[in-house]
Design goal:
Elements (H helix, E strand, L loop, with lengths): L17 E3 L2 H12 L5 H10 L4 E3 H10 L8 H5 L13 H18 L8 H9 L1
Antiparallel strand pairs: 1-2
Helix pairs in contact: 1-2, 2-3
């Protein structure tokens, strides 16, 4: 069975789990990039990922699976001490719509004007 993978070096757009590249991972990727036993696309992927600070687990697994069992470390040893890289989610429009009234009221209160309980005061707040 030959595993293939598409080179993906940008962790900001890579879907799925992303792990920090540790020394054991970099060493494995470097040896995989130099291995004549692997397909050219796998070697190219390993070469591209070997200098990245974080890599897709899916890509790492594809390279690991393509390598012969005697040429690869146990997966547990390879991932030992590895940290997950968490990307910041994009803000959602719903959250912005929810927070906007609070921002308006906060600015109004900081201006030094008082907010009454009648509907006229609420209309002034909404206009600002």
């Amino acid at each position: 069975m030959v595993a293939t993978a598409t080179p993906t070096t940008s962790t900001n757009t890579t879907p799925g789990l992303v792990v920090a590249a540790t020394d054991p991972i970099r060493s494995f990727l470097s040896s995989a990039a130099a291995s004549e036993d692997l397909a050219a696309d796998i070697r190219d992927l390993a070469s591209a990922l070997s200098s990245e600070p974080a890599i897709s687990y899916r890509s790492l697994r594809a390279i690991w699976c393509a390598a012969s069992p005697d040429a690869r470390p146990p997966l547990r040893d390879l991932l030992h001490g590895t940290e997950f890289v968490l990307r910041s989610p994009k803000p959602r429009e719903k959250v912005l719509r929810f927070l906007l009234p609070f921002v308006v009221v906060s600015r109004f209160l900081r201006s030094g004007e008082s907010v009454g309980s009648d509907s006229d005061s609420a209309a002034v707040v909404a206009e600002r």
